[in-house]
Design goal:
This protein has two helices and no strands. With 75 residues, it is mainly α. The termini are far apart. The relative contact order is 0.09.
């Protein structure tokens, strides 16, 4: 973990556990949270795509046909 404020660059003690920077008042834990959430969403989408492809390979064709038929009947 960095021992400086991400916004103003003030050096902080390694034992500084308060939630805000003493100089600028920046929330240390939530700084750039939107950016981190967007990166997590992209990673989750990629992992789900891999899982979906794997499940698609493992599912027998007769089950896929039945699922497709059931979906078309429900419309």
């Amino acid at each position: 973990m960095k021992s400086e404020c991400p916004k103003c660059g003030k050096k902080l003690s390694i034992f500084y556990f308060k939630p805000k920077c003493p100089q600028c008042g920046c929330e240390l834990a939530y700084y750039d949270m939107d950016k981190m959430l967007e990166e997590d969403a992209k990673k989750a989408e990629a992992e789900f795509a891999k899982l979906d492809a794997f499940i698609d390979k493992m599912t027998p064709k007769f089950i896929k046909k039945k699922m497709k038929k059931d979906m078309s009947d429900s419309k």
